[in-house]
Amino acid sequence: MVEILLGVMILGPLVLTFLLKSNAALGFLVLCVGFVLSTSVIGDLKHLLSQLNLSTTSSTIGIILLIVPLVLTLLLTRRSAGKGFKFWLQLAAALCGGGLLALSVGPVLGSSSQFNVTTSSFWTNLQKIQSEIIGIGALISLLLIWFGGLKRFGKHK
Prior knowledge:
- The chain is mainly alpha-helical.
- 76% of the residues lie in helices and 0% in strands.
- The chain is globular and about 50 Å long.
């Protein structure tokens, strides 16, 4: 069951990118921002929500900060992935994004639910290639954004 959950987290962004033709490069970078937010401001968010009489756990806030911005980005950037080689690079960024999502959500799930993904052999293998997932995903995402999304402003005809 844990392997299925990890597989869904890894392949989810890939499937969404493929079906919606979304910009997975932006999705990967939004996931990086969500990870930073979920690790650095989660205590302040929990305190703010408690002042608003909304009780929630830190793990729930962390999961929301990781998944919701990614899904919204993929939905809002539909039909912007390009064609040909660019689209294949978008799919590679989506696969790296899914790996980063699993690596980010896995420990949170393990501490908060019956799905302790950190005991799985699939998790161990995923952690072994963590640096490659993050490095390749970041490189592909930055290259796609730097060279693929720039609109040239020049003479108007």
